[in-house]
Amino acid sequence: MKILLVDDEPLELENLKSILLSFDPLLEIFTAENGMAAWSQLEKHQIDIVCLDIRMPGWDGIEILKRIKNKWPHLKVMLVSAYGEFQYAQEAIASGASAYILKPVVPEEFIEAFKKMCQEIEWMRSEYSFILQTAVESWLQDETNEEYVNFLNLPIQPSVVVVVKIKSETQPEKEKWDAAFCEGLEKTISVPHPIKGHWVYLMESKESETHEITEKLSFLKMFLSERFQGVEWIFGVGEVVHSPADLKRSFYSAIQDTQNKDEAIIQKCFDYLSANYASSITLNDLAKSVHISASHLSRIFKNNLGVTFVDVLTKIRIERAKGLLENKDLSIQFISNHVGFSSPDYFSSTFRKLEGISPSQYRLKKDGRHPCL
């Protein structure tokens, strides 16, 4: 559970923090001395509960509460005030506060209000999967319910549907699969249960084309094959839409995409490149491995991924190199040769072009140090 305490008095912050940690030492507690600092913390962390002092310079507690409820309607907020006037409590409750307590804070009262909010959060989480499933199924049946959209308060604005079809008898544990799948992508949430035999994922994308998403998924598939061995699967990317009401169109185009023969060819290419990236590979070598002409394969890469064969091979080599760079005992020259580059200089210039930093700087960054770029 992540808690944000907001008060312009440092001693009061320490007091509230001490009370909470005495109740549960595992709580993750953040602090802020004013409204602006609090807003910055809220945007950086997925806070569960906010405890606000009412009287602060700049934005007061009521103002912050209203802003929070406008952006994160279901975030739990407790207001604390040294003033017992009834109008403060009235305005706090009207603005959506879950609790209102007075200073000096009585630890037992504070913990009791905190426990109540925690129980409400647990109930919300237990119901969330059902509501999300119901909402998505209604969207995909062209029956979008705006109440569901508002209630869910999704962390993304879904604009693309991605589907996964498990083809092997070996079925991964969906919860672990979903966590790994969403971790490998940005702004993606999983739908708890299959729909029409497909595992469904909602993505937020600013791209009007799906080439970039397809490329990311192709790389993700390559890496997930190492983690979930024996699982055979294909994916489909739907068209980009502009509202939940149009997700049905994206969903069915994603299913259609799973039936696209080009995706199967691309996957065979990724498998071949993943196994042979350290060798000197040409487009002709790759084309022979999938039994089509080099010109046809070149068109498949361009039409489906928006990149060339060389772009894909280079990115695979760089991704492999990033893993090796975490081993400080391996020299840059060794890594360069190991992943198939003709020279360390070419490797370094290519790495910088794709990653924005040199291999040495990347190694320092992963080691916890921050080089001057």
Automatic annotation (TrEMBL):
Transcription regulation is among the record's keywords: yes
Keywords: DNA-binding, Phosphoprotein, Transcription, Transcription regulation
Residues where 4-aspartylphosphate is found: D53
Domain annotation Response regulatory: ranges: 2-118
SMART domains, sorted: HTH_ARAC, REC
Domain of life, source organism: Bacteria
Segments forming domain HTH araC/xylS-type: 267-365
Xref: PANTHER family: ARAC-FAMILY TRANSCRIPTIONAL REGULATOR, HTH-TYPE TRANSCRIPTIONAL REGULATOR EXSA
Official protein name in the record: Response regulator
